[in-house]
Amino acid sequence: MKSGEKGIMNSILEAIGNTPLVKLNRVAKGIEGNVLVKCEYLNPSGSVKDRMALRMIEEPEKSAKIKPSVNSIVEASSGNTAIALSMVCAAKGYPLKIYFPEATMVPEKMKILDRFGARLEQTRRDDEEANRMAREVGLHGAAIEVPGRVQCLREEKENPHIYWTRQFSNPANKKAQSAIARELLEETDGRVAVFVASIGTGGTFLGVSQILKKEIPHVKCIAVQPAGWEGWRDPLSPETKYMPGITGGLTQEIRDSGIADEVLWVGNEEARAMAYRLSREEGIFCGMSSGANVFVAMNEARKPGMKGKNVIAVLVDRGDRYFSDERYIT
């Protein structure tokens, strides 16, 4: 960068973060609480995962564990992390392989990943009935990534040049997302009554909630999850058994710490309807998990005593990756 060219970024990666906080108007008309949305879908690759994808690569780079001329990256992902990592790896020059669940493979996601140059390896569940249900109802994304995680672990053991980013347990995930909390504190002058975020790997909810609770002890942090089918197990349930190195990680930390003041479930229809309302009434083109977060935030803002108080929902990703599959997965 030449001296004086202050408006020029050295890389698209410098555009990650510092997303706008926007007040909902028409959608929240008549509600006394302020419903505010953190527009993470405006990150360069289109989701909140850009923040953690960048940090998961840059931290091992700083400690000389990886470099583009030597290492390849692998990860298991059902969507946003795959796309975010593919952007970061393309910008930095790392080969990337994604183990992608068959149940969530849709043309728009595949096309984006292909444009960024990521290699895809399809994973499937042995239980065909589970696959059928995954297509028909909401399914917690982290659960269907487990077969891919097993493959990542195998690759890493077999090849010293393979680096698995381990999004579900990597501390860089929540560290990167904690920047959202600091931005919110600055944007609201420290006035946050309720924070709402969906849980996938758990990095956004955990990273933001930990900072907010430290600075605003009375803040209420609500975790949102997709409503599953009969027999579906809540990953935050006390009865859930985790597999070390494969499941747990950040979701286990959320469960064991008790940081979530409330855990709420939202179905496909509610999430989809709100996502459509945000597009048609606010001009906000976001995905299904964003709709779920706003659905919960609206209900909180309607409660007695919320007049003038700020309820913040995370807008996780863009709506263009849901054209052919409008389920709320994470």
Order of adjacent strands in the largest pleated sheet: 1-2-10-7-8-9
CATH level 1 name of the largest domain: Alpha Beta
In round numbers, the mean pLDDT is 89
The domain tally reads 2
User: Overall 3D geometry?
Assistant: globular
Sequence stretches where pLDDT stays below 50 over 5 or more residues: 129-141
How many angstroms does the end-to-end distance come to? 39 Å
Write the CATH architecture name of the largest domain.
3-Layer(aba) Sandwich
Task: Tell me the number of strands.
Answer: 10
Q: Approximately how much helix is present in the residues?
A: 25-40%
Order of helices and strands: EEHEHEHEHHHEHEHEHEHHE
CATH topology of the largest domain: Rossmann fold
For the largest beta-sheet, the strand count, sense and barrel status come to: 6 strands, mixed
Percent of residues in beta strands: 15-25%
Continuous helix count: 11
How would you classify the helix and strand content by structural class?
Answer: alpha/beta
Radius of gyration: 19 Å
Task: Kindly describe this structure.
The chain is an alpha/beta fold and 330 residues long. It has 2 domains: 12-44 and 177-321, Rossmann fold (3-Layer(aba) Sandwich), CATH 3.40.50; 49-164, 3-Layer(aba) Sandwich (Rossmann fold). It is 40% helix and 15% strand. The chain has 11 helices and 10 strands. The protein has a 6-stranded mixed sheet, with helices on both faces. The chain has a 4-stranded parallel sheet with strand order 5-4-3-6, with helices on both faces. Strand 4 (96-101), helix 3 and strand 5 form a beta-alpha-beta unit. It is globular and about 60 Å long. The protein starts with 20 loop residues before the first strand and ends in a 15-residue tail after the last strand. The model is unreliable at 129-141 (pLDDT under 50).
